[in-house]
Design a protein that fits this description.
Elements lengths: L3 H24 L6 H8 L3 H7 L3 H5 L1 H15 L7 H21 L4 H13 L1 H26 L8 H21 L6 H20 L6
Helix pairs in contact: 1-2, 1-7, 5-6, 5-8, 6-9, 6-10, 7-8, 8-9, 9-10
Length: 208
């Protein structure tokens, strides 16, 4: 059972995270300092650093939460599903509970606005892409384990994840620059792209 001290620490972390994202999305990542965040929550800079290594970690903290949500969804897919289908279903079914996971910490609208900040801030985009590469390795390991193959000897887990990762990156990029900035729009775009993977890889694109 969670103690009073643990609940207080979680409330402080959540308050710092929410305030950081609000400042990043209203005044810009580069124009927000750790002192700005700490002052807005009425805590010391030292307290901020107890919870986050720096601004970058705070800016990407929600992405870490949603990634873990997705990885768990992949682990729980039925063993009879082919790897790409398991990834596809993990994304689509995970979306149904994503809002609940995010809103346990911050409003979903703030989470969505932070996506645009990440896409438009070079230092954050670079960190996001670096983390994406690490996540792809984790997914490849999960696929290899569920299929009973050696991830280092068999290229298929990493090949599948490379295709899947490319689709999701394309989805993020197009959604973040589009006109409809809702969670439903991101889901619809992901569905559309995932459904085109098979034909794009195996069929001719020529029109007659």
């Amino acid at each position: 059972m969670e103690t009073l001290r643990e609940r207080k620490k979680q409330r402080t972390r959540d308050a710092l995270l929410r305030t950081a994202l609000e400042l990043f999305t209203t005044q810009g990542y580069e124009h927000t300092t750790v002192d700005d965040i700490a002052d807005a929550v009425d805590v010391s800079q030292r307290t901020f650093f107890r919870y986050f290594a720096g601004k970058e970690e705070a800016a990407l903290a929600l992405q870490d939460i949603t990634v873990e949500h997705f990885l768990e969804a992949v682990r729980e897919r039925p063993p009879h599903e082919a790897p790409m289908e398991a990834l596809r279903q993990a994304v689509l079914e995970g979306w149904d509970t994503l809002q609940e996971v995010v809103e346990a910490v911050v409003p979903i609208g703030l989470y969505l606005r932070m996506y645009r900040v990440i896409e438009s801030t070079p230092v954050l985009l670079a960190a996001h892409l670096r983390r994406s590469a690490e996540i792809e390795e984790a997914i490849a390991g999960i696929l290899a384990a569920r299929e009973g193959v050696d991830v280092d000897a068999d290229p298929r887990p990493r090949l599948a994840v490379a295709v899947f990762g490319g689709v999701m990156r394309l989805t993020e990029r197009q959604w973040s620059t589009g006109e409809d900035f809702s969670l439903d729009a991101m889901r619809a775009l992901a569905v559309s792209h995932l459904e085109q993977v098979g034909p794009a890889l195996s069929e001719s694109w020529r029109t007659r």
